[in-house]
Specification:
The protein is mostly helical and 143 residues long. 62% of the residues lie in helices and 7% in strands. It has six helices and two strands; from the N terminus they run ααααββαα. Strand 1 and strand 2 form a beta hairpin. The chain is globular, with a radius of gyration of 18 Å.
């Protein structure tokens, strides 16, 4: 339930407000694990997308990591300044991204941190609850 809202409020059962509240708490928890490595959860997601979709144009990453194009550009600029990614020319006007050697090694470390955070979180719910949560989240986020 959204903190600070009485159960008699219509807001206490609002899917959006409860989702936003849960997302903030979960992001904070994951960010705390990743910040010692100088990245956020969103940057981790972007680094992962680059690794697993190496020949995809930069524009396609916005959808893969749920970022608008401006935020994607800002995140890529930051990751490039940190030496974690490099932008490459593709066919035509397409721009591609690749992980640098440093970025590739860091992503391996980050995946371990993510796995630990994921295990910690999953230990708080049953396998059925986790599966139901993912099913509902995916159904509600379809466009």
């Amino acid at each position: 339930m959204v903190r600070g809202m009485e159960s008699s409020d219509n807001f206490s059962t609002c899917l959006v407000l409860n989702t936003v509240s849960a997302a903030r708490i979960l992001l904070r928890r994951y960010d705390q694990r990743l910040k010692i490595h100088g990245v956020t959860v969103q940057q981790f997601a972007l680094l992962s997308a680059i690794r697993f979709h190496p020949s995809s144009p930069v524009a396609s990453f916005a959808q893969k990591v749920a970022l608008d194009r401006t935020s994607l550009t800002r995140s890529l600029d930051l990751l490039e300044r940190k030496g974690l990614v490099r932008r490459l020319s593709g066919s035509g006007n397409a721009r591609l991204c690749a992980l640098s050697e440093i970025g590739d090694r860091l992503l391996d470390t980050l995946r371990g941190e993510w796995q630990a955070a994921q295990s910690e979180l999953l230990s708080r719910v049953s396998a059925e609850e986790a599966a139901t949560y993912l099913q509902v989240a995916r159904a509600l986020s379809e466009e």
